[in-house]
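Subject: Protein record for review, amino acid sequence with backbone structure tokens
Category: Structural biology, sequence-to-fold work with a learned token vocabulary.
Format: Residues in single-letter code; tokens as whole numbers, each standing for a residue.
Body of memo: The sequence and its backbone structure tokens, given next.
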Amino acid sequence: MSIDWEAVARAHTPPLRIAVLEAYDEVDGEYITPTEIAKGAGSSSVKVNEAVTVLRRKGLLGPRQLPSVEERFWRLVEIKDGEDSCWIWNGGKKPNGYGMFADGETIRNVHRYSYELLIGPIGDGLVLDHICRVRHCVNPEHLDPVLQKENVSRGALCDEAARSKALARTHCVRGHELTEENTYWAKSPTNFPRRVCRTCRRHGLARYRAKRNAELGPDREPATSVEAA
């Protein structure tokens, strides 16, 4: 991005606006967020947005440049432990744990978008199985194109493994004994089976009712809840 610094000087531009111009000049036309500029300028994103608006109105800053679809995608991916680890999607997720992403035309599953971007097309009739079992991972090396039948079969094996691991536990994290009478089965956010402690559930519902009744006040009908089956 070409900035007319002589015009900036003639306009007696305040320090924050100069910092904004310097940030845009440094990235040379690439997309940069107001939050990133604010962090470098020691200001807030609100004030940065106001400065950008004024600079554009004065003709000292060019028109807004939006990031490409790929840039938006990678800004929401976190790679913590190297290229071989899970690449964690920090954007929106479906209730079943799979990430989703708007590519400008439609809503995509992020693991499919990543695979097609870095590896290539997914074969007809194939789905991508997360061999890492982390549904919001977008590392294409962790994605195996298989038939849906194979994917379901692998999922069943994982369910059984998760169930066996859960059964091996004798106490919950709060120390309650996990007897048959004190537990029931439910699905986790990633759709794997988990054993729920009835005592913890009962205490949690009691805390919720107490908080809700305090919010409603003494003149409102107390909140009640049915204990989980």
